[in-house]
Amino acid sequence: QVQLVESGGGLVQAGGSLRLSCVASGSIFSPNVMGWYRQAPGKQREFVADIISNGRSNYADSVKGRFTISRDNGQNTVNLEMNSLKPEDTAVYYCQFAYFSNYVWGRGAQVTVSS
After folding, report:
1. Which pairs from 70-79 meet CB under 8 Å and 24+ separation?
2. Are 39 and 64 in contact (CB under 8 A)?
3. Which residues of the chain have pLDDT under 70?
4. Pair 7, 107: CB distance under 8 Å
5. Which terminal Cβ of the chain has fewer Cβ within 10 Å, N or C?
6. What is residue 28's predicted lDDT score, i.e. its pLDDT?
7. Residues 6 or more apart whose Cβ sits within 8 Å of residue 94
8. What pLDDT is recorded for position 29?
9. HSE, side-chain direction, 13 A CA sphere, residue 69
10. Mind giving me the DSSP string for 25-87?
11. So what's the pLDDT on residue 73?
12. Is the Cβ–Cβ distance between 12 and 112 less than 8 Å?
């Protein structure tokens, strides 16, 4: 069983930066994918970015060039650096761990961007 704990997030003005971190613990197998999704009020959860254990990453078009995902396999940690934040980035951000067809979600971290 894998557990995820997110940290970071908070309130920032438009144009600012925030960092999210997620630590995985438990039975960690490779290859795996760790990533971030977000859910704004009244909207469906959407993909933000993910990174495979070999380092290959993917981004949603809406965050390309502004967000950077990274991971430390030794620490089982994934980070999301968010720059040039916009009010539309406001959401609860969820960490996800995926190993083949097994998916684990974190509890979420609030990110609020004021205009």
Report:
1. 71/34, 73/30, 75/23, 76/23, 76/24, 76/25, 76/28, 77/21, 77/22, 77/23, 77/24, 78/21, 78/22, 78/24, 78/34, 78/35, 78/36, 78/51, 79/19, 79/20, 79/21, 79/22
2. no
3. none
4. no
5. N
6. 87
7. 6, 36, 37, 38, 39, 45, 105, 106, 107, 108, 109
8. 86
9. 25
10. EES--SS-EEEEEEE-TTS--EEEEEEETTS-EEE-TTTTTTEEEEEETTTTEEEEEE-S--G
11. 85
12. yes
Token pair listed for 86: 């916009």
Residue position matching structure tokens 């078009």: 61
For the chain, give the mean pLDDT: 95
Residue 83 is predicted with a pLDDT of 98
What's the angle, vertex CA 5, arms to CA 14 and CA 60, rounded to 5?
Answer: 45
Residue for token digits 């995985």?
24
Structure tokens at 33: 């994918």
Q: What is the pLDDT of residue 75?
A: 87
Q: What DSSP designation does 89 have?
A: G
Residue in this structure with the two tokens 């039975």, named with its chain if needed: 27
